[in-house]
C-alpha cells in the first residue's frame, strides 16, 4: 500500500476486476478475511426472526420483555467488549490471530445457542457470539486493508461491507427457510457455525498481515508476502516505503510496546484520526441504520401493513437493497472518493428521512375513526374506549396507544371507521374471520406506501456511502503503530452507538411518535454533513504513511470537491 498516488482516471473497480485474473491471491486474502463480515451481518439480522420462535418455546421469554431485550442486547454488549479487546489483540498477536479467535468464539456461541435448554444458556451463547462479532468487525477490514494494493484498497475493504450486508440478507432467507422446520430458531442461530468453520480453515492457509510482520521485525516473511501481492515492477518500491515508514515510527516512539491513551491524544495525527474515525462511526449509527435493519418489519407495520408475512417480505427487499448498495460502494469508493461518497450518502438520507417523517406524521394525524357501532358488533371492546368520556373523538392511533387493536370495517376499504377491541389472539381471530384487517402496530393509511418508498430510498443512499465509508476510513487513517488500538476504539464506539440507538428506538416511537423519531435522525444526518465537511480528510489513493502526514498538517477542509495533487496537503 505504500507508493505513489494512483492516476485519477484509473477506475479502482476495473482494477479490482482485472486483479481477479492477474493476481487471484489478493482476492483470496480479501474474501477469506471478509467472511468475518458475513458473520457480523448474519448475526445482526437473524435474531429478529429467531426471536418470534424463541418466545413460542420459552414461556418466560414470551411473558417477560426484559428477557427478549437481553437476548438481543447481550450480543451487542459482547461486541463492545470484543471490539475493545480486539484492538489490543490486533497489535499484540496480529490480525490473523484475532480473526481466528473471533471465529472460535462465534463457533462456541453458535453451538451453545443451538443447544440451549433455557433462556439463560441462550443469553450466554449470545455473549460469546457478540465477543466474536466485535473482534471480527475491526480485525477483518484491517487485515484486508493491510494486504491490499493501494489502487484497490478501498474496493477490497468495501467487499467486507458487502459481505456484512450479504450476511444480513442471508439471515432473512434462512429465517424464511426454517419457519416450518423442527427446531426452527435453533437452526437459524446454529447455522452460523458453518461459515465460522470455513473461515478457520481458510485463515490457517493464509499469512499474517505484512505490515504487522514488519512492525514485529519479521521483515523477510513480510517481503515474501508483499511479492505475492504486488507486481514485480512495484514490489521493491513498496517494500522500501514500508520499511522506511516502520523505521520512522519505531524511532519516534522509542518503544514498540508502550502505548497509552495519553500518548494517543498527544499525537496530533492520531487525535485527528480518532475524531474523524469515531465521528463517522457515531453518525453511521445515529442516523438510524440499525433501527431499519433490526426493526424493519415493525416499521413497515407502523406504516399500516397489517400482515406479518407481508412485513417480513418487504423487510427482505430492504435487506436486498442494502446488499445491492454495498456492491455499488465497491465501484464508487475508489472512483468517487470516501469523503464525497459520505456527503452524497448523508444528503440522500436527509431526503429519505424527511419523506418518512412526512408519511408517518400524515398516518398518525389522519388515521381512521373508531365507530361505536362497529365496536359493539364484537364482545371484546377495548376497556379504554368503553370508559372514555370523549369516545366519539377516538381514532385508530388513540386506540393503539391504549394498547388495544384496530379491526378495519372492510378489507377492501380499511380506511373507514372501524372497531377498537382488546388485543389478543381470540379477538384477532374474530376480526380476521370476517375478512377484516387487524392492526396492532400501525394504522391503515392511503399514503402508507410512501413509507416503503422512504425506507428503500434511505437504504439505497445509506448503504453505498455511510454503510461503507466509516469502515474504510478507519482501516487506513491511523499510523501503523496505533492502528490496532485506534481501530478497536472506533469499533467500540460503533457498537456502543449501536446499542444506544437500537435500545431506544421503540421507546422513542412511543414517547414522541414515529414521525418525530425519524425527524430526529434527519437532524443528526444534517449535523453529520457538517462533520464530514470539516473533520474527515479524503484518503482515496493516498498511501497510509502520507495519510499520517496529511493529518499532521491539515486544517479545516471545506472545499472537498477540489482534487488533491501529490504536492498539495489537505
Classify the secondary structure makeup into a structural class.
mainly alpha
Q: What is the rounded Rg?
A: 26 Å
Average pLDDT reading? 78
- Biggest sheet strand order reads 2-1-3
CATH superfamily name of the largest domain? MFS general substrate transporter like domains
Number of strands: 3
Order of helices and strands: HHHHHHHHHHHHHHHHHHHHEEHEHHHHH
The largest pleated sheet is described as: 3 strands, antiparallel
Enumerate the spans where pLDDT stays under 50 for 5 or more consecutive residues: 1-10, 565-570
Distance between the termini: 20 Å
Shape: elongated
Helix content: over 70%
Number of structurally distinct domains: 3
In percent, how much strand structure appears in the residues?
under 5%
Would you give the CATH topology of the largest domain?
Growth Hormone, Chain: A
Q: If helices are DSSP runs of H or I spanning 4 or more residues, what is the number of helices?
A: 26
The assigned CATH architecture of the largest domain is Up-down Bundle
Just give the CATH class of the largest domain: Mainly Alpha
Amino acid at each position: 500500500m505504500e507508493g505513489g498516488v494512483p492516476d485519477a482516471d484509473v477506475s479502482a473497480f476495473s482494477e479490482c476486476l482485472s486483479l481477479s485474473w492477474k493476481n487471484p491471491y489478493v482476492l483470496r486474502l480479501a474474501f477469506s478475511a471478509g467472511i468475518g463480515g458475513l458473520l457480523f451481518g448474519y448475526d445482526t439480522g437473524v435474531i429478529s426472526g429467531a426471536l418470534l420462535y424463541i418466545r413460542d418455546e420459552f414461556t418466560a421469554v414470551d411473558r417477560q420483555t426484559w428477557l427478549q431485550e437481553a437476548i438481543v442486547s447481550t450480543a451487542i454488549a459482547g461486541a463492545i467488549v470484543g471490539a475493545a479487546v480486539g484492538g489490543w489483540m490486533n497489535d499484540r498477536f496480529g490480525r490473523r490471530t484475532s480473526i481466528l479467535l473471533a471465529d472460535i468464539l462465534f463457533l462456541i456461541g453458535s453451538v451453545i445457542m443451538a443447544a440451549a435448554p433455557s433462556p439463560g444458556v441462550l443469553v450466554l451463547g449470545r455473549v460469546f457470539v457478540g465477543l466474536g462479532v466485535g473482534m471480527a468487525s475491526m480485525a477483518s477490514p484491517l487485515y484486508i486493508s493491510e494486504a491490499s494494493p493501494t489502487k484497490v484498497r478501498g474496493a477490497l475493504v468495501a467487499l467486507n461491507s458487502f459481505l456484512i450486508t450479504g450476511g444480513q440478507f442471508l439471515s432473512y432467507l434462512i429465517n424464511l427457510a426454517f419457519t416450518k422446520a423442527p427446531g426452527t430458531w435453533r437452526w437459524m442461530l446454529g447455522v452460523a457455525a458453518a461459515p465460522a468453520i470455513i473461515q478457520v480453515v481458510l485463515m490457517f492457509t493464509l499469512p499474517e498481515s505484512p505490515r504487522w510482520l514488519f512492525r514485529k521485525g519479521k521483515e523477510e516473511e513480510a517481503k515474501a508476502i508483499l511479492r505475492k501481492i504486488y507486481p514485480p515492477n512495484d514490489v521493491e518500491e513498496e517494500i522500501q516505503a514500508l520499511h522506511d515508514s516502520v523505521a520512522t515510527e519505531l524511532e519516534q516512539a522509542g518503544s514498540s510496546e508502550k502505548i497509552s491513551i495519553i500518548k494517543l491524544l498527544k499525537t496530533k495525527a492520531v487525535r485527528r484520526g480518532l475524531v474523524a474515525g469515531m465521528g463517522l462511526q457515531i453518525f453511521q449509527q445515529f442516523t438510524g441504520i440499525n433501527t431499519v435493519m433490526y426493526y424493519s418489519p415493525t416499521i413497515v407495520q407502523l406504516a399500516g401493513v397489517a400482515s406479518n408475512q407481508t412485513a417480513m417480505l418487504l423487510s427482505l427487499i430492504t435487506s436486498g437493497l442494502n446488499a445491492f448498495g454495498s456492491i455499488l460502494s465497491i465501484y464508487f469508493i475508489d472512483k468517487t472518493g470516501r469523503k464525497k461518497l459520505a456527503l452524497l450518502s448523508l444528503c440522500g438520507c436527509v431526503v429519505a428521512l424527511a419523506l418518512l417523517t412526512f408519511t408517518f406524521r400524515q398516518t398518525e394525524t389522519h388515521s381512521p375513526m373508531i365507530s361505536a357501532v362497529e365496536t359493539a358488533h364484537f364482545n371484546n371492546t377495548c376497556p379504554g374506549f368503553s370508559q372514555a368520556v370523549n369516545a366519539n373523538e377516538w381514532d385508530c392511533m388513540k386506540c393503539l396507544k391504549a394498547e388495544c387493536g384496530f379491526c378495519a370495517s372492510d378489507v377492501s376499504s380499511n380506511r373507514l371507521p372501524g372497531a377498537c377491541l382488546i388485543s389478543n389472539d381470540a379477538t384477532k381471530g374474530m376480526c380476521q374471520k370476517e375478512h377484516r384487517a387487524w392492526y396492532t402496530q400501525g394504522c391503515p393509511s392511503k399514503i402508507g406506501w410512501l413509507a416503503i418508498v422512504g425506507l428503500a430510498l434511505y437504504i439505497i443512499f445509506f448503504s453505498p456511502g455511510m454503510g461503507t465509508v466509516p469502515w474504510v476510513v478507519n482501516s487506513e487513517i491511523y499510523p501503523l503503530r496505533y492502528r490496532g488500538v485506534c481501530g478497536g476504539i472506533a469499533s467500540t464506539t460503533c457498537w456502543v452507538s449501536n446499542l444506544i440507538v437500537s435500545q431506544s428506538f421503540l421507546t422513542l416511537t412511543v414517547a414522541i411518535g414515529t414521525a418525530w423519531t425519524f425527524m430526529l435522525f434527519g437532524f443528526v444526518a444534517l449535523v453529520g454533513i457538517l462533520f464530514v465537511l470539516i473533520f474527515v480528510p479524503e484518503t482515496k489513493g493516498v498511501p497510509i504513511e502520507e495519510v499520517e502526514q496529511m493529518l499532521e498538517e491539515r486544517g479545516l477542509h471545506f472545499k472537498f470537491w477540489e482534487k488533491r495533487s501529490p504536492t498539495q496537503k489537505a
